[in-house]
Design a protein that fits this description.
The chain has about 110 residues and is mostly helical. The protein contains 5 helices and 2 strands. A hairpin with an 8-residue loop joins β1 and β2. The N and C termini lie close together (about 10 Å).
């Protein structure tokens, strides 16, 4: 993709995929992340209101394409780290003991590739 940041990725995804397809992809990513933890199939099934076959399908995809899910997780960590560094700054007088976080306007979509 030739997207420079998250907002361009959003535009591409919205143009290509329907709302239902975007939801399904998001759920698959969340399910794969839960499978990496100690969450049981029954807990996942109840939380997402999905069938066991869906969970098994995601597990098969993880086994078949492990690099895909590694890249997704790696990107999520990068975005979270950069967002937390740039989203808030401490404001207040330099001599004051109390300084408060102030939102800078930086969004997750602003994280560059």
């Amino acid at each position: 993709m030739a997207a420079k940041d998250g907002s361009e990725v959003d535009e591409i995804i919205k143009g290509i995929l329907t709302n239902d397809e975007r939801i399904k992809i998001g759920r698959r990513i969340l399910i794969s992340q839960l499978l990496d933890t100690d969450t049981t199939y029954d807990e996942i099934r109840k939380n997402f209101k999905i069938g066991k076959q869906t969970i098994l399908h995601v597990q098969k995809l993880k086994d078949k394409y492990p690099k895909c899910f590694e890249l997704i997780n790696k990107r999520e960590i990068k975005v979270d780290d950069e967002y937390h560094k740039k989203a808030y700054e401490m404001v207040g007088h330099t001599r004051s003991l109390q300084r408060f976080p102030s939102y800078t306007g930086f969004k997750r979509k602003n994280v560059k590739r």
